[in-house]
User: Fold CCA tRNA nucleotidyltransferase from Saccharopolyspora rosea.
Amino acid sequence: MSPSQQHTSAPPADDRSRERQAQRNAVVELLRVAPLAEELGERFNAAGHRLYLVGGSVRDALLGRLGTDLDFTTDARPEQVRELLDGWAETVWDTGIQFGTLGAYKRGATVEITTFRADTYDRVSRNPEVVFGDTIEGDLLRRDFTVNAMAIELPSRTFVDLHGGMADLVARRLDTPAPPEESFADDPLRMMRAARFVAQLGFTPADRVVEAMRDMAFEITRITAERVQTELSKLLCGQYPRRGVELLVETGLADHVLPEVPAMKLEIDEHHQHKDVYRHSLTVLDQAIDLERAADPEGEPDLVLRLAALLHDIGKPATRRFEPGGGVSFHHHEVVGAKMTRKRLRALKYSKEIVGDVSDLVYLHLRFHGYSEGQWTDSAVRRYVNDAGHLLPRLHKLVRADCTTRNRRKANALQRAYDELEERIARIAEAEDLAKVRPDLDGNEIMRLLGVSPGPVVGRAWKHLKEVRLDRGPLEHDEAVEELRRWAREQGIEVPEAD
Assistant:
């Protein structure tokens, strides 16, 4: 049975039971915010207009997780909507009025009300010619996926499902109201949204959706980097990001959005001397998320950690070398990978902070292996902490997640080694305040002791004293002064006599 036929066939009895239960869930969730939603519905109804809770709000109500951001659609035109909101809402804003949308805030809830749309697209850009519609049927047909194309009319609470959205929701299937080729041609960003919903909801895309994504992957190049980045970030912060990434790679979208990821699908050498880097990276992503959730079960998803986990080995294809005797090496892949990460994230218009943090984690992720192979001095531990800086908690998670060996003995040895490193960091940090490693003399004292004004000499001296601090730990004040004087004499700087 094709996905399009599934919408017109009677569902099995068990599915009908689940659909009825889902509808009851939606009513329960709607009742939770009913005073506000029904007030609004009655207000529009009294003015002769129709109002529907729609899209993601209905989907989330059916899933039992309706929040306080509510989406509505109406036959009222934007200026009529404004009149109806004035005097009812605590705050009204019209930043989206050119697209027929007004927003409002009341009693802790944010609502967006959009006039029925019947847009047309030029299919060259993704910018629609905004056309207001007159029917809920036309509005729902233009929506991206069937699970987002359901509505509840207010105040009657009449359920509207014209495209099998309920059946798809129960079956956890992602399909489109219109043929996917038409939907994606109108707005190629919907292909990214398909992968995002797979990652967020754990749904399985219909075969025809996957086929259309595969055939039309190149169309994503019509979309701005900023919009692609937004969808990619939501995907990675979903409940099941691995599934979303796999769909991007399977359909070829990743070739245009994040080409370094499918490039990790290295051909395995006949002696299997290295892992499938792509699969390894997906496993590291899974394990990093497990560690993230274990550390803070109620916390927000860590986009920086997840990007770093996915991209930490993207330098391997460029650095792979087949060694004499059948071995394989990836020397300096962390250095190459950090540069590649920085370039890709900049192209996707990520913020300077995210670009820096993710590329630094990629660069640092191998540093620990020197510890597991031999004893580090306290100086090396200090440098590890200093170089990681504020990223140290994330680096701990990334390094632990990077252990994907099936050899339990080796895996346990690596985890024990990292446990030991964390314990040493804690001991030294307690004694020396590693989070705030500074030279034992500040800039003002350096200038006084050397008799110099602000300038490059002070910076060089400060940097030298910091290196000494990392190597030797905290110095007594007299020791630090003597070290500064010794360094200055080596640099040919005339040092004033001590007071």
Q: What stands out?
A: The longest strand covers residues 109-115.
